[in-house]
Amino acid sequence: MTPSMSETGKRLSINTVTRKLYYYSGERLVKEYPVAVGKPSTPTPPGQYKIKNKILNPGGVLGTRWMGLTIPGGNYGIHGNNNPSSIGRAVSLGCIRMHNHHVEELFPQIPIGTPVHIYGHTEPDAIPAASPGKGDTGAGRNGKTYTVRPGDTLWEIARSFNTTLEAIIAANDLPDPNRITPGQIIIIP
User: What's one GO-annotated cellular component (predicted)?
Assistant: First the structure.
């Protein structure tokens, strides 16, 4: 039987803005790792997922370890890499890249089924309750998200996706729609 969070108490949390992966055991932060995340054209999808498979030495751009994620619509994972200078940047096709020595350290501690929370804001880490109507992926009903770039406004984002400012504010539960930050993931309804 694969251990679940209730059995192991382990979980991973990834902040795509600060580009950090946090490894928790229960409520205790065990370790923090720098990561690379998806570039603006192929962002890392925010949401609640689980580790679905693990591969030793996948090779090439995947480095020395692969931990696949249950993100629908693609083959996403947490993996090593063959380009250490990419760590700390938004450059991947949506996967989370780690230094090989870091993923080698983390890999044996993370069982299949471990929860993974991916988010794109600068607030302290928390695993929120699921929001009604948004699904498990955290994406809008059409599955689109947008990564805020420097100088963007919500009005311009709404206009470019042919939706309303009010719809974007509601879909993202934004407390202050005038305060969006570069790297923040916006759900497009």
Answer: extracellular region
Pull the structure tokens for residue 78: 């947490």
Of 40-44, 93-97, 141-145, 148-152, the least confident:
141-145
138 within domain boundaries? no
In a domain, 168, yes or no: yes
User: Counting runs of H as helices and runs of E as strands, what totals does the chain give?
Assistant: 4, 12
Owning domain of residue 153: 144-188
How many domains are there within the chain? 2
**Closest by alpha carbon to 94, among 30, 127, 137?**
137
Q: One of 79, 99, 102, 117 is an active-site residue; which one?
A: 79
Q: Is 102 among the catalytic positions?
A: no
Round to whole Å and give the CA distance between 129 and 138.
Answer: 11
95 is catalytic: yes
Assess whether 91 and 171 both reside in one domain: no
In tens, the pLDDT along 23-52 reads 999 889 999 999 999 988 889 999 999 999
| CATH code of residue 168 | 3.10.350.10
Same domain membership, residue 109 and residue 25: yes
Helix extents (H) in 111-188: 154-160, 165-172
Confidence class for position 143, pLDDT limits 50, 70, 90: low
Among 95, 99, 102, 117, which one carries the catalytic annotation?
95
